[in-house]
Amino acid sequence: MSAFGERAACRFLEFFTAHIRNANTRRAYARDVRTFLTWCEAHGVTTLEAITSLHVAAYVEALTQAWAAPTAKRHLAAIRHLLDWLVTGQVVPTNPAASVRGPSHVVRRGKTPVLAPEEARAMLDAIDVTTPVGLRDRALIGLMVYSFARIGAALSMKVEDAYTQNRRLWVRLHEKGGKRHEIPCHHNLETYLHAYIDAAGIGRDLKGPLFRTIRRGTGLLSETHMAQADAYTMIRRRAEAAGPVLATTHFALPGSPPI
């Protein structure tokens, strides 16, 4: 964005730091906007003022031809919100994406993987729990299985978010929009979490992350939150260990549009 001027660059950074608070949305929007600006440059559009609704529509049409409708709609949303922010900051006079319609898409069935009880049991039982890493993976997968937690909410948990109340372990999940859910643990999940926390030796680090990365070359856990991409890779690896069909059916990982 520096090529578009200092004011545009400053407003651009504000959009992703001050305006968008959700880390996952920030990451997705940044990738989508970068892809769009690269596409514009390749098509001879080198200034923000030169972007028209025809350019945005052509870009969305190209996405629709190569990718599913939700991908194109997300890209359009990122472009539209960014240009709105630039309009209010008086960087550009109008938002050329405002009049562009995205592809229609009706969700009749959710795509979130739902495991049958026997599939979940096979996946959990296939994990080697003789190491802290195995115990961590079993606890994370068990948390999502027994509480239906989003992976983002699970990975953002701190050690203090697994706590005892009335002699029973509870988990505190911080969901989108600042919502907080507190859920009593299934007895299996309680066993998984206690075993992991005890083996990892993190019980007293209440403000530290619950699910942590692995220190390179040591097999030991670090003090850093596990990244979402690493968690997806781990879950797919564990699913493959439980059975190739399970991994292919439930945990195929889509790529990013190469435009």
TrEMBL record:
Domain of life: Bacteria
Keywords in alphabetical order: DNA integration, DNA recombination, DNA-binding
BP term (GO), one: DNA recombination
Matches recorded under SUPFAM superfamilies: DNA breaking-rejoining enzymes
Claim: DNA-binding is one of the keywords in the record: yes
Residue ranges of domain Tyr recombinase in the record: 110-259
UniProt KW rRNA-binding keyword: no
Core-binding (CB) domain span: 7-87
Gene Ontology molecular function, alphabetical: DNA binding
Family: Belongs to the 'phage' integrase family.
Protein name, UniProt field: Integrase
Organism for this UniProt entry: Azorhizobium oxalatiphilum
